[in-house]
Design brief:
two-stranded antiparallel ribbon; alpha+beta; 2 domains; 7 strands; single chain; 193 residues
């Protein structure tokens, strides 16, 4: 067990670790048992913690609307919104198409982010099968450019993938997002496999 001052110091270390500046994370855990606060140290992040930290880093890419880690069915495992609220006109238009039951569970922005990230799932599966059948090797990265939105899709083991959704009005190229995704790959691969 550690005292309160040590807990704060280690918590600051954790913030540094979550920014990707260290490879063997230390995590502080604070539990309340009855009237007693218990503070402990765990020597690694859970897979979920690693996923959340990686997706948060991806969502922080300049010009990113957000990032999503998806499973083999295109379902969002972790979602992070990036730059702020949706433009009012986009949100107003989306409100017409998002079911009320969904709006009560997640924001319109989160819903649209998940929807955008689910879309590449079928493409990834198709391209992966085609490139492997033609001995081209596994698919690494896919970039999709729509008029206003760009997607950088990083293929991962076990048919997981990371999607960085970009506001094309705020970026000049996909390069920075692609480099961040490639930098996150080893961390994500370690937890997936």
């Amino acid at each position: 067990m550690v005292d309160h001052r040590t807990f704060e110091r280690i918590t600051k270390q954790q913030e540094i670790i979550l920014r990707g500046e260290r490879h063997s994370p230390i995590v502080c855990v604070k539990l309340k048992l009855g009237s007693v606060d218990m503070i402990g140290v765990v020597d690694h992040l859970t897979a979920e913690g690693v996923f959340e930290a990686a997706v948060e880093e991806a969502a922080a890419v300049p010009g990113a609307l957000g990032a999503v880690l998806c499973d083999f069915e295109g379902e969002a495992v972790v979602t992070r919104w990036g730059v702020g609220p949706l433009p009012p006109d986009v949100e107003a238009e989306a409100q017409k198409h998002v079911p009320n039951a969904v709006r009560s569970q997640v924001s319109v922005g989160q819903y649209l982010l998940r929807l955008a990230a689910a879309e590449p799932c079928a493409l990834l599966m198709t391209f992966s099968r085609k490139t492997l059948s033609r001995h081209g090797g596994p698919l690494d990265t896919l970039e999709i450019a729509y008029r206003n939105v760009g997607l950088v899709v990083l293929s991962l083991p076990e048919d997981f993938y990371l999607v960085i959704v970009l506001d094309r009005k705020r970026i000049r190229s996909f390069g920075h997002a692609r480099r961040v995704a490639q930098k996150l790959r080893p961390r994500l691969v370690r937890e997936i496999t």
